Structures are given as C-alpha cells and as structure tokens.
Amino acid sequence: MDVYRAESVAIMELVRGLAGEAVEQVSVDEAYLEVTEQVGGEGGHDEMIRRAVPMAEAIKAAVRRERGLAATIGVGPNKLTAKIASSSFKPDGLTVVLESGKAAYLRPLPAGAIHGVGKVTEAALARAGLVTVGDIQDCQDDLRAYVGSWWGELRRMAFGEDDRPLDFSDDIRSVSSENTFARDTADRAVLRGCLREQAEEIAGRLQRHRLAAVTVQVKVRYSDFTTLTRQVSMEEALEDASSIYRLSCWLLGRHRLVARPLRLIGVGVTGLRAVTMRQLVLPFMETRR
Predict the structure, then answer these.
(1) What's the CATH superfamily of 175-274?
(2) Which of 164, 191, 206, 217 lies 20 to 30 Å (CA to CA) from residue 245?
(3) What is the CATH number of domain 107-158?
(4) Which are the contacts of 209, defined by CB distance < 8 A and separation ≥ 6?
(5) Per the residue annotation, which of 7, 21, 24, 30 is the catalytic one?
(6) Is 12 in contact with 69 (CB distance < 8 Å)?
(7) Boundaries of every domain in the chain
(8) Percentage of residues in the chain with pLDDT exceeding 70?
(9) How does strand 30-33 pair with strand 23-27?
(10) 2-101 maps to which CATH number?
(11) What is the pTM of this model?
(12) What is the rounded CA–CA span in Å between residue 193 and residue 25?
C-alpha cells in the first residue's frame, strides 16, 4: 500500500504541474480538476470543454511517459458528468461530455450511475419503475415516498445538473449522512436499508480520506420535529461499513428510538483519526470471530 500511495503522490504532482493547483483528490487514484481559468471562459460551455481536451490528453501522455501507467479521464461541465465519463472505457479512456449533450449522455445509463444513488435507493427506484436515468428524467410523479426529500435533487442530477464545488479542505472533523421521509415510517426494513446505505456512504468517504472514527452517532426526528441523537464511542477506531451499520442499529434498539414513526434518520461519525495501518483479515480469521 505504501508503494501505491507513493505512486499516487508522484502522479498528482504531474497533474498539478499540467493543470494547476485546483485539484480535489478523493482517493489514491482519483481526483477532480477545475481548469476553467486555464482554458478561458469565452465561447460558451461547450467550447470551454473542448479546449480542456488537449490538457486531458497531455495528462494521459505524461502519466504514461513518466510513470508507465494508463490514466482514464472524463471531461465534463461538472463533477457528476466528469466522474461518470471517467468510468467509461477503462482503462486508458478519454470521454468528453458537452454541456449541450449531458442529459442525452446520461439517459441510457442505469439509475445507480447518479452520484448518491446506492443499492437501496436504486432498488426503491426500480420498485417505482425507474431503472435508467432516462426513466427518472421522464418521471413527472412525486416519488419522495420512495427516496425521501432527495427526489428533487435526484431529478436535477438526472439531467446532468450538479453545482457541487471542488473541496480543497483537508480538515474533516465529522462525516454524516441522513434521509428525510415523505411520510413518517417505523418500517424496520426501510430503516435498516437507510442505515445500511448511509453506513456504506460514510465508510466510502472515510476510506477515500484514509480516516477512521472513534464515535458513531444516530439521529432521528419525529413528526413533531423532536430531534434526538445518541452515540457510542469505541476504544479502537473503525472505518468499515458493517461496523458503522451494526452500531447504528444497536443505538436505535438500545435507546428505543423507533417507539414511534420517524420523519428523519441519519448516521454520523466523529473522533476521526488518520489510518496508519489496516489489519489484513484472512478467511480462517473470519471463522473465529
């Protein structure tokens, strides 16, 4: 892993040398670049994106020449489209999504391609008959009963709208995720599904930033807007989704937080620490747990 991270540092130095310092690194092998200043703002969004392509080609060439590795790059008007484009034609791909064509590009993709749509949300959308991004684009119904208050933002993203800025901050004190229901619910299966998806999202963010957490917290809100939080701290920091999920479920049960239907449920972790070493779990060790 140390060799992998050292290679990541070398590649990011190459990237910054070609594209500037506006780089948000989200994992050892993935980063977002903001190159508006380098390509200039004249000529409209499509022209700006086209002018960014030679820079993407130069980055790919430099990584292959200097490091002997293939790089896959997506060029788009925002983080959502660039991320999805970078997932196309791996390895060694270069995919360009224009502002004028972003909705059409996303249309045939599965709903799970959209940022924030995990397995639970994708399954909920499928139950509503929405399997592709195009299905979400065409839907005129209010589906908050299926995906909560996020429905409006989900539809925006289905059309390629994403105004998230690049995050250059390294000072992360907590990571959290929550979901608001269109109708209060005490359905255990629904709540467990939300907790599992939230735990997976949090674990993914922790692992991207190479962090682990000491404290897990759950948050619930009822129909009268009463909001409660309960937390538990561990001696050893954790970073995996299964541990976060199990502790979240334990907190709900231990404090009887679902004694009445919930309007909102959320999970958060605090007490963050840098991960310096990760234990290797072998199959025979799993059987003894």
Answers:
(1) DNA polymerase, Y-family, little finger domain (3.30.1490.100)
(2) 164
(3) 1.10.150.20
(4) 172
(5) 30
(6) no
(7) 2-101, 107-158, 175-274
(8) 92
(9) antiparallel
(10) 3.30.70.270
(11) 0.64
(12) 29
Report the distance separating Cα 124 and Cα 155, nearest Å: 15
φ/ψ of residue 135, rounded to 5: -60, -40
- The pLDDT tens digits for 191-209 are 999 999 999 989 988 887 7
Positive or negative: CA dihedral 184, 190, 192, 196:
negative
Mean pLDDT of the chain: 87
Report pLDDT for 284: 41
User: According to the model, what pLDDT value does residue 288 have?
Assistant: 39
**73-75 and 94-96 strand pairing:** parallel
What is the DSSP code (8-state) at residue 69? -
Task: Read off the pLDDT of residues 210-231 as tens digits, 9 standing for 90 and up.
Answer: 789 999 999 999 988 888 999 9
Query: At what angle are helices 188-208 and 119-127 packed, to 10 degrees?
Result: 140
Per-residue pLDDT, 197 = 92
13 has catalytic annotation:
no
